[in-house]
Write a structure and sequence with these properties.
alpha+beta; Heat Shock Protein 90; five-stranded mixed sheet
């Protein structure tokens, strides 16, 4: 886990202005250094070009080749090594490795060749200055190339550091992508499991209704006096169709069962009349909850009752998980226009099931249930703080 200071530094380095600011600072330093220590034309041009080109190193990374080459040229034009050349050269080599302009081996080889060329120019300069410079074939002449060796080591270190940072960021990116793919897979699996659970619950509701149709149709042929043969056959066909529909429902449920072979639910499905018990269960595990019901209680179709109950149940679970100890209010409004409105809000920190990596499975299930009955669901920070889940379930067409 990175510290806040590390995150701020990382954000600053990633900012678009960073290369312009650092390149401008190095260029200003180069100008000041040339004023204090004047140099020839070749060195002056090399120092300024090497420093100024840093400003384009992110928008056009290949310009780092010019940065390093100009720095070597500026160093070759004078036996003095300017600080600005050292800084710009290191940053240029780092950029070449970081942006992988060339393969690191080619970059180091090119830098080593440039270092040898600079060293040869300096050897020639030393000999013209009448310094005791041994001939290249004489004993001790290898010490003359210590400069090129040191420059090569510096180039190698800067390039490898840039390449290492690049590799680390690629690894971090790959890890984040893998985590994102895993989260997406988990959400898809959770959505599929929720849909299967909804289908199993609806199977119970529809199966009960269809079985009642079959029983009533069959009994009508015996309890209704004066039926014509055509009417009796019609009732029998209704019963047969109902039994066929039951068989199709059982086959459909078999497709939706988990590999463990879940069986169909046989217990009565909960309704809005059970919300009081649900709130009591929330209180029993340490939660603080209140149930408010407005409007006239109207018996709704079974699918609407079940969806409303499950949405409330999941919202309370979400409140316990993300806002433990918070006060939760469950509001049920049987409004005009055959619209049922559910609101579950808490006074917690405002984090819900959609917060954090891998979260959001509960909200997905609630939205699935609302959409099942033609409604809509929203979830997020409440107007007065905390977290609010609001669902509108029209039941006029039920």
């Amino acid at each position: 886990m990175s510290s806040p200071l590390q995150r701020r530094v990382r954000d600053w380095v990633a900012a678009p202005a960073y290369p312009w600011v650092t390149g401008g600072v190095v260029t200003a330093g180069a100008v000041a250094e040339l004023i204090v220590i004047p140099a020839g034309v070749t060195t002056t041009v090399g120092v300024l070009v090497s420093a100024a080109s840093l400003m384009w190193r992110r928008s056009f990374p290949p310009i780092a080749v010019l940065t390093v080459a100009a720095g070597l040229l500026g160093f070759a034009g004078d036996v003095n090594l300017y600080v600005s050349i050292m800084v710009s050269g290191l940053m240029g080599c780092y950029c070449l490795g970081r942006r992988r302009v060339l393969h690191p081996a080619l970059t180091v080889a090119g830098g080593a060749l440039g270092a040898v060329c600079v060293n040869l120019v300096h050897i020639n300069t030393w000999s013209r200055m009448e310094l005791p410079v041994p001939a290249l074939w004489e004993k001790g002449s290898l010490s003359l190339f210590a400069e090129s060796f040191l420059l090569t080591v510096v180039v190698f270190g800067a390039v490898m550091m840039g390449d290492a940072v690049r590799s680390r960021e690629e690894t971090r990116t790959e890890r984040h992508l893998a985590q994102a793919r895993m989260i997406a897979m988990e959400r898809q699996q959770a959505a599929e499991a929720e849909r299967a659970a909804i289908a199993r619950e609806l199977h119970d509701i529809v199966s009960h209704s269809v079985s009642m149709i079959a029983v009533q149709a069959e009994s009508a042929t015996y309890t209704t006096p004066g039926l014509t043969p055509e009417a009796r056959d019609g009732f029998q066909q209704i019963a047969a169709t109902a039994r066929s529909s039951m068989a199709e429902l059982r086959r459909l449920l078999g497709v939706l069962r988990t590999p463990q072979g879940e069986v169909a639910l046989t217990a009565p499905q909960p309704t809005l009349d059970h919300l009081g018990e649900l709130v009591e269960q929330h209180r029993a595990v340490g939660g603080v909850a209140e149930l408010r019901i407005t409007g006239e209680r109207v018996p709704l179709p079974a699918a609407w009752e079940l969806s409303a109950y499950r949405i409330t149940q999941e919202a309370l679970t979400n409140a316990r998980k993300h806002a433990p100890g918070a006060r939760t209010v469950v509001e049920v409004d049987y409004g005009a226009g055959r619209l049922l409105t559910l609101r579950v809000r808490d006074d917690g920190p405002g984090r819900g099931a959609g917060s954090g990596p891998g979260a959001g499975h509960g909200l997905t299930g609630m939205r699935e249930r609302a959409a099942l009955v033609g409604g809509r669901l929203s979830a997020g920070a409440g107007p007065d703080g905390g977290f609010l889940v609001e669902a509108e379930l029209p039941w006029g067409s039920g």
